[in-house]
Fold this protein.
Amino acid sequence: MTPSLEPSPRGAIRIDGAVKSYGHGVARTLAVDDCSFDVNAGEICVVVGPSGCGKTTLLGAIAGFQSLDGGSIRLDGRMLCGPGRPRAEVGSDRIVVFQDGALLPWKTNLDNVAFGPTVQGTLSRAAARDKARGMLADAGLGGYEDVYPGQTSSGVRRRIEIVRALMNDPAVLLLDEPYRALDALTKSVMHESLLELYLRSRVTIFFITHDLEEAVFLGRRVVVMTARPCRPKAILDVDIPYPRTYDIVGERRYRELVQEAAAAVHEEARRAFDVGDKEGPQ
Amino acid sequence: MANVRALLLRLERLVPWLKSPMPYLAVAGYGLFLLSWYLLVDVFALGRFSRMPGLGSIVHEWLSVDPAYGVSIHTPIYYQHILTSLGRVGLAFALATALGVPLGLLLGWSPTVKEYVFPLFEMLRPIPILAWVPLAIIMFAGSETPVVFLTFLASFFATTLNTLLGVRSIDPSFILAARCLGASRTQVFRHVIVPGALPFIFTGLQISVGVAWFSLVAAEMVSGQFGLGYLINTSYTMVQYPTIAIAMLTLGLVGYSTSAAVRVAGDRIMRWRKRELTGAGRA
């Protein structure tokens, strides 16, 4: 049997009736309520919604950082969390890339990328470093191996962090507003570079943002969330084929989709704002 | 070859420093201080300063081959005092580091351990070292052990507390990221907690070595033989004022050197940090 060149895509996530609340009694707030949707294997699924709507809670539940009060999450058919197991186990099949970046400052970029396989014991340190060197070079990041993250620009750091995640051959990458702190110019470079890494690895990506242009540019599908409690309001099918370059931002279809997302988000933002007004001191 | 390059690099950095006003300001600061001392005590002998040891007599005594009160850079006893004090501080500092750093890491890492230890720790910490003197003398035999114990105590609190703060200062995303990448609890401890706390640990060690000298002198004034604190105390009772000043200035010099040694050690161990700082300066 010849091994197929295209590996069967992994990383299908099924979120089914997820519920999560914080606090008790009067102070209890529902962050996520009866939230169900699927992330298809091998796609970039972007989740947008008003800030504080519970998107990060959802990501934390998939990663295993947070428990759910109800509902279940499955990854490729396997239950991560659900009845009898409120909290998923943290595992290297689901790797989170954080808002502010989390390369370890005391390790060189190379040792950061080699970290996963080294601590898991899947590769010897030397072999992990060799593989890391290769993956950094493939991603056009050769030359940054032996310096520390603190000496590296924030854009390059974000790209290295994605490579560090991909080193572990994860089923899904969980990105929580990874480019929030970057300026617009760096951001556009990051987007193209993420798409390039994505097309090479075809890893499933769960991407949280509230930048709608970013969402439509990157996503195969964009899930617009309602204001708290968080649940899908609209799911946009971004029918612009990959590979995408920044030229598409001028295209009509792109603008239409951004506007469609904006309309849905605006309605929710408005609602969140009104609710906030009522809850606030009079 | 690498050594030569490092030396050249250091020289290259030295030149702009020498061209900047900084070193001359420091020299001027010293000069002004010594000049005012000389004028206030030696020349005018104003009011409160009339009974102070004069700068001239101190320098003369310090450098004298045959010092009037028996202590100068030419007498072996001078070095015995310094070495005795250094030895006590060294031992106390080593013990405080060996116990304080692990305890601080544990306090920061394990909420259970913290619940047990921290309230007690915070109650004992504000007790001034001098208040421990009687108990230390009762508890420990001889004159040497109480002095080392008192010196250790102050260092230990500073080191432990700063290590604990160091663990708490670590960005939680580093820990979560390491766990995502498959690190076990012990691996997180080794690869994230310990290196992440290092900057604070070294700040703590610098404070610790400072308070070690502070409590050493206090302890030496009460108990023990030899040592710079002992020298100050005996010179006072024997009305040998220039020797007091010699011991004080020596304490300043030796204390500064130990503090600088800790800083250099920290810079060596945390190269990533130094580079990070210089990198940030360049950006």
DSSP finds seven helices and ten strands in chain A. Chain A touches chain B at residues 63, 65, 90-92, 94-96, 98-100, 102, 104-108, 115-116, 119-120, 147-153, 164-165, 168 (CB under 8 Å).
